[in-house]
Design a protein that fits this description.
It is built from 20 helices and 14 strands. The chain is of the alpha/beta class and 522 residues long. The longest helix is centred in the middle third of the chain and has 22 residues. It is elongated and about 85 Å long.
Length: 522
């Protein structure tokens, strides 16, 4: 049976891309369709940090166009937004309108998640299954750099606030930068990249590590260097290799030309790319020099192909041990020395309760990914705040998660996990602007329900022992009975006393009268 196609939409700062693909049994994927629109969203960010109404209109119109193209394949949609959207102060409005008007859920990802997804695409295009590499993705609003080892582990990720569209805005004339502006551009790049260069100097040297660049800038560099060497455009940039000297020669040529019109007169290059290519090459050159890269291999796969591969991996993961997202959760938890047997107990209760009563509330499935995965993550991370201090540790857990890095999760999902943990003890959650500003009301209600399930699960494991074996739910009309099954010769009074205190939280979320009973295994 053929797998359902995936439609990946990448809302970038310079352009928006659509790819429709179907996964094959050998782990590769078949391209079904693609579409690109140069939107320059970063240029629509106004002085207040908001995406202007004109910019929002461009974004929504392009989304609608891409949805129409992809819908004929009946795909699963996955829409990812990067720098321009995540830095916009009115991104909640953008996300809400996309869902209300187009039925599309936008996942706003941070720079590190952007780097991780791009690295999946790069590794696929160059068949780097068990090879270490440095990956570079120069975007319109930010630039991502990632170090991956031969075991597919991310050793270092960095998201630099330098991008082609964002830096292009510093040029006052459309004819290209003046000498002063070009000098200022190089100073900015030096100041942004130098700290990263100092950090990576302390990393163990890997002589086999390739340097791989994706994105439009990398492909443009390959094309222009090919034209300098052979006098004709490059048809396919994938796996094309150029060295630092060739890049320096290209940068000198573009600096002498300056204007997009003059660049197009000498080189075969489309108009949209010619407008930002000088800035892009300057970014690439600065990173090459500061990180002492001798040569680059070009990947024509990047973020959007990574979205396809990541979505397929999530769909195929039959257990938590196969899901890279849960491995990220476990790594985060271990960093803060959680009691693993305890969080496993809590997770087991939470999953059992969710599977029995999770369908009883309205709005099921409105979060961007599997709610059960968020609940499992909350179970593993609800005690990480104890690393800071026991007093108010639920607040510390919230802060660490909300401001930490969870690979494979969007910013919104990370904040949802943080809130689930924030309200697993002490006062119960109430929908208010301060706590739930990022979420719609149905999403907030679901987070509160998941938090209530976590509260109950933590109560069932209160004694930190294998006292209670299971919880069974029986529903009759508006009455819900939770039966606690205790292990043989065990007294679960400590756990039951806490559970009774927490039932009101579930009652408010489920709108049912809840009672609790107990029996022991004979």
């Amino acid at each position: 049976m053929a797998t359902k196609p995936i439609a990946a939409i990448d809302i970038g700062s310079n352009s928006m891309h659509l790819i429709v693909a179907r996964m094959c049994q050998n782990g590769t994927f078949e391209h079904l369709d693609s579409h690109k629109v140069t939107t320059r969203l970063a240029a629509y960010l106004d002085s207040s940090g908001k995406l202007s109404e004109e910019g929002i209109a461009v974004l929504l119109k392009t989304l609608q166009e891409m949805k129409s193209i992809a819908s004929g394949y009946d795909p699963e949609f996955r829409v990812i937004a990067t720098h321009a959207t995540r830095t916009s102060k009115n991104r909640k409005t953008i996300i809400a309108r996309a869902y209300q008007e187009l039925g599309l859920s936008i996942e706003v990802i941070d720079g590190l998640e952007e780097a991780r997804l791009a690295s999946l695409g790069m590794a696929s295009s160059l068949s780097l299954k068990n090879q270490s590499f440095l990956g570079l993705d120069i975007g319109g609003g930010s630039t991502e750099i990632i170090y991956r080892n031969a075991q597919k582990q991310l050793e270092r990720c960095a998201s630099l606030q330098i991008g082609t569209v964002a830096l292009q805005k510093m040029f006052e004339s459309e004819e290209g930068p003046t000498d002063i502006e070009l000098k200022r551009l190089k100073e900015i790049l030096h100041n942004k990249i130098t700290p990263l260069a100092s950090e990576v100097e302390n990393m163990p040297r890997d002589t086999k590590r390739l340097a791989v660049a994706c994105s439009g800038t990398a492909k443009a560099a390959a094309n222009l260097i090919h034209q300098m060497k052979f006098g004709r455009p490059l048809l396919d940039a994938n796996a094309f290799v150029f060295n630092a000297n060739e890049l320096h020669e290209l940068a000198a040529s573009l600096e002498s030309l300056r204007s997009p019109k003059a660049i197009r007169a000498k080189y075969t290059l489309d108009k949209d790319r010619s407008e930002v290519v000088l800035v892009g090459i300057e970014i690439l050159l600065a990173i090459t020099d500061h990180l002492k890269i001798s040569k680059w291999s070009v990947s024509t796969y990047g973020l959007r192909e990574g979205i396809i591969l990541d979505s397929a991996q999530q769909a195929e993961a039959s257990s938590d041990s196969l899901d890279p997202r849960m491995e990220s959760i476990r790594s985060f938890a271990r960093r803060y020395r959680v009691d693993e047997p305890q969080v496993e107990r809590v997770q087991n209760f939470a999953v059992s309760i969710y599977n029995q009563i999770g369908h009883l509330t309205a709005g099921h499935g409105v979060l961007q990914k599997d709610e059960l995965l968020l609940l499992k993550a909350g179970s593993w991370l609800h005690e990480v705040g104890k690393f800071v201090a026991y007093s108010k540790y639920h607040r510390h857990s919230h802060y660490l998660i909300a401001n930490g890095t969870l690979q494979g999760y969007t910013e919104k999902e990370r904040l949802a996990i943080a809130l689930i943990c924030r309200f697993h003890r002490k006062r119960n959650a109430l929908i208010n602007k301060d706590d739930f500003e990022t979420f719609t009301e149905p999403e907030a209600k679901r987070i509160i329900t998941l938090s209530a399930i976590l509260r109950l699960s933590a109560s069932l494991a209160r004694g930190r022992r294998e006292c209670i074996q299971a919880v069974q739910a029986t529903i009759q009309g508006n009455n819900l009975t939770l039966e606690v099954i205790a292990a043989k010769n065990q007294n679960p009074d400590v756990e039951l006393d806490r559970v009774r205190e927490e039932l009101f939280v579930l009652e408010s979320g489920l709108q049912k009268t809840i009672s609790i009973s107990r029996r022991s295994v004979s």
